[in-house]
Design goal:
The chain is mostly helical and about 325 residues long. The protein has one domain.
Length: about 325
């Protein structure tokens, strides 16, 4: 028995665990209410009305868009992980990052951050990288993901701010606050603020201690082709659902929706119902569009993970 005391985390309050499910239920209830109203105006019930939309879509063309897009995202996402690990933890071949990044998508169905924790465990066991230090690289990736999404959301808001619902006006204010915080963050880890602080010396913050502004910028730029590809794919997919939209307008909408859906703010509920609000004359099409685009991406990525899972298990536990 170790002499160290074991500190147990208090259980998460029930209301905190139930809140995300309640919000999701309310959003889907709202979508059903709007869809049912649109179906009633057509003299139909909601489910047959929605199934009619699915029947009109060319699913072969849709898959021809979504499968390459998901694979492209996987390549870019793995490149970001590989680049950051190589910077801060030592050389790791890109091919060794692919199986664990893919396998983590399976866990990410339930929680994206637990998926990143699984990558940290893998790199620790497979390449001997100290756990806390590789954990710092995962934190660095998460930190950059927030700023990457925010930067593109700000671009989107600048393009189409007038065409977005009022709640999305939080984007520029969040950007101002994040810019101020980011400046203080960089100055702290350079030792310009609180030079006597020992917090920055902890292994879990190794990546931030080593990082320079260029590391943050390159990480965000390296991920940016994924969002540009998403603008292309979503615009073309939208047309398959019978809705015509330009690439420029989609560049104004999509980054804001991605940011709002990823960040726990009041905008998250707006992001879930965004498509039906943006195209109210196509409520059925937009309900189907929002459901299939999001869920296919998540589950196809998990399918990619299944292809690599045997190798990941062999290298991790073999």
């Amino acid at each position: 028995m170790s002499g160290e005391a074991v500190i147990e985390r208090p259980p998460t309050p029930l209301w905190q665990r139930a809140l995300p499910w309640l919000i999701a239920l309310l959003c889907f209830s709202y979508l059903y209410y709007r869809l049912d109203g649109a179906a009633e105006r057509q003299g139909q019930q909601a489910l047959p009305f929605l199934l009619g939309v699915f029947a009109r879509v060319s699913w072969g063309q849709w898959l021809a868009l979504m499968i390459p897009y998901s694979l492209f995202f996987f390549v870019i996402d793995s490149a970001v992980v590989w680049r950051v690990i190589t910077w801060f933890n030592g050389p790791v071949p890109y091919r060794d990052v692919l199986p664990i990044r893919a396998s983590a998508y399976i866990i990410s169905i339930f929680n994206e951050q637990i998926g990143k924790g699984a990558m940290a465990v893998y790199l620790n066991r497979r390449h001997g990288v100290p756990g806390w230090e590789v954990g710092s690289s995962m934190l660095f990736i998460m930190f950059c993901e927030f700023y990457y999404l925010l930067a593109w959301a700000l671009v989107g808001w600048a393009i189409s701010g007038g065409g977005l619902r009022e709640g999305f006006g939080l984007v520029p204010w969040i950007a101002v606050g994040a810019a101020l915080f980011g400046g203080v963050w960089l100055l702290y880890f350079r030792g310009s603020i609180l030079p006597g602080s020992t917090l920055r010396e902890r292994p879990i913050l190794l990546a931030f201690r080593k990082a320079r502004p260029m590391h943050y910028l390159v990480t965000m730029l390296l991920r940016s082709p994924a969002i540009l590809a998403a603008v292309l794919v979503y615009t073309l997919a939208l047309r398959l659902f019978g809705v015509q939209e330009s690439f420029g307008n989609m560049l104004g909408y999509l980054p804001v929706v991605f940011f709002a859906a990823a960040v726990p703010t009041p905008m998250r509920a707006l992001a879930i119902t965004f498509w039906t609000e943006l195209f109210p004359e196509h409520r059925a099409e937009m309900t189907a569009f929002g459901i299939v685009m999001h869920n296919f991406f998540i589950f196809f990525n998990a399918a990619i993970g299944l292809l690599f899972l045997r190798r990941a298990n062999r290298e991790l536990f073999g």
